[in-house]
Amino acid sequence: xxxxxxxxxxxxxxxxxxxxxxxxxxxxxxxxxxxxxxxxxxxxxxxxxxxxxxxxxxxxxxxxxxxxxxx
Length: 71
Prior knowledge:
Oligomer: single chain
Mean pLDDT: 95
Helix content: over 70%
Radius of gyration: 31 Å
Number of strands: 0
């Protein structure tokens, strides 16, 4: 009976180790996804900033050219 108990405990430890390894793998994958998302969000904000600056310059040039045409 004692041997059966030790075997059952060994199986439980093996399953717990497998679960812990799977959890670590998922945590690593989540960290990688978080890094990728952060990179994409930063790129999006940069792109929107550049687009806003280009829009502002284009608007100023059009306004200036319309004033020159009216003269």
